[in-house]
Structures are given as structure tokens and as C-alpha cells.
Description:
Blueprint: E1 2-4, H1 26-46, E2 53-56, E3 74-76, E4 95-98, E5 120-125, E6 128-130, H2 132-142, E7 147-152, H3 154-163, E8 168-171, E9 173-177, E10 180-183, H4 186-202, E11 216-222, H5 225-234, E12 239-240, E13 245-250
Amino acid sequence: xxxxxxxxxxxxxxxxxxxxxxxxxxxxxxxxxxxxxxxxxxxxxxxxxxxxxxxxxxxxxxxxxxxxxxxxxxxxxxxxxxxxxxxxxxxxxxxxxxxxxxxxxxxxxxxxxxxxxxxxxxxxxxxxxxxxxxxxxxxxxxxxxxxxxxxxxxxxxxxxxxxxxxxxxxxxxxxxxxxxxxxxxxxxxxxxxxxxxxxxxxxxxxxxxxxxxxxxxxxxxxxxxxxxxxxxxxxxxxxxxxxxxxxxxxxxxxxxxx
Length: 258
């Protein structure tokens, strides 16, 4: 399964003061995320994959130019799924992440955030601050499926390797701030992703699962106190652990809702 975000592709930097989805860069981001996803899918099929599912998970989940994907792909899209990596189960050989980004607060990282750029200051698991890549990989890990490949900016790739040192990565660009980068040409990034995925598949036996100890203690620190108050009303089983922080214990990451 290929999980796709739109912040990490080559030449995508957004617009100062705006989330990517609200910026003039979103049109190109959709197209380049599609091209990079297609390169990853072709690499999987060329390596012998019988089934590739693309999961569009940026925003409301309807971003990619779907008819430009390899026609052998199936597509998961839209909002309202009950967990991350919907439809994934133990029959999959691995998961890939295309267009992902570094966690909120990462120095120099492009469009860095953790799920909600406007609301979340940090998400911590067992006291350690983690980003979307680790959280999503842990959901897949609960199902016995390893993360094998990540395409992101240099800071995002470094973040992935800190917790998942076995994972194959391809950096699409180098960040100098939230909205500025030195990027690979889009076509070069696509070719690098194709080759990186082929390397990841060849190294499949080296890949491991990322899992968190059960029960999973999760904290969400919000940027504003009123955001924490609103979330406390909506979230069952969460309690205050500070003026702007909510915490809970989950039976497993399959219960995690961002």
C-alpha cells in the first residue's frame, strides 16, 4: 500500500502563512504527488507486485489526479475512515510513504507539521515526540506490515531513519525554511523514487515492524488552550494533562484517531 501526502514532493513549498491546501502551490502539489506515486507503483509492479493500493491521505483525501496513476492501481480516498491505513491487513508485504513531511517544529523542514498545522504543537507517545511517519508506521506495524520506503524532504527522511533505520528513503528536496527549498527536478525525483522503491523491495527481508508498547500512552499538545478544550468535548476517553494538552491510553495504535 502506498500512503500519499502532498507536502513532500519535489518543488512543493506552499505559501507563507497558509496551509498547503489553501496555497497557490496546491495545484502543482497534486500533480507532482501523482507523478511520484505513479513512479512508486510502477516500481512495485515491475518488481512483481500483484496488487498496489494507493491511499490518498492529504486533507480530505481527494487530491491526486487519479486517472494519471498506473491503471493497475486501486485507490483509497475520501474522509471518514475509522483508522489510519484503512483496508490494510496482514496480507500486504509492505507500506510506502510518498510526499510525507517532517514533524511540527523541525528546524528548516518544508511545511513541517503533525497532522494539523493549525492545531497541534506536538504529539507524544510514551513521552517521546513523534511525527506522522512514526505514527502511521506504528499502525501498519500493529497489522504486521513494515514500512519499507519513504520519499520526503531531507529533514523528513532523517526523521524516518531515526526511528526506522532499516527504511529506504529518497529525499526530494532540501529545506531552508518552512517555504523555501533546493529541490530536485520533478522528473529526477520520480526516477529516484522508482529506483529507491526497487531497492526497498529487494531489501524486504531486512525490514522490521515499528510498534509501541501496549497500552499506548498518547499526548496531544495543542497550540491554543481553546483548541484543547474543544477537542476534550469531542474526544471520548481523553483527559487534560496540562492547559493545552490532552492524554489517553490506547489498547493499540489501531484505536488512534488523529
